Prior knowledge:
The protein is α+β, with helices and mostly antiparallel strands. The protein is built from 6 helices and 2 strands, in the order αββααααα. It has a domain at 42-121.
Amino acid sequence: MSQTKKKSQAEPTKKRNERGQFVKGNEIGKETRVKKGETLSLKYKEEYCTKLLEYFSKPSTRVEYKKTYVKGELSSETPILLPEEYPTFELFAASIGVSVRVLADWRDKYPQFADAYARAKEIQLGKLTSCAVMGLYNPLYAKFEAVNNHNQKDKSEVETNVSAVDERTLALIQRVEARLSNGGQKD
């Protein structure tokens, strides 16, 4: 006869077992789980607008102190400015138990969420810009993020100066213009 251990009610539910698999009865993310026959858009709550803006409005930097010791005693503390975790829509979606695609669906379906999403995108760009200017982000990745996720463009001006056109090139241009004006017929 085999004996099985019964799980006590007071014992917290583990998210994963020792092999890394999700365990049955996991309570994490229960509020946003999809039941059979439901769509994720039914999980939308107006409070997600506020949660989205709160998530993106967290401070973008923190200060830590580098302590210097001389002969075992604290000599000085130098403040060091460090970036906080860069807010992304992927991380926010994971925090409420949905995918980025669901956020896009909510943005298309609910005007209030669309406004919050647009504001969060602006806050994200502001944080990216300020932390990049302070040198807290890798410049190559900051540029990549700005170009690919915020429709920023890398501008470069090219000056062209065509002043000397020889006679043969000018005659060719005039012939092409004449053909185009005659509807493509030869002279």
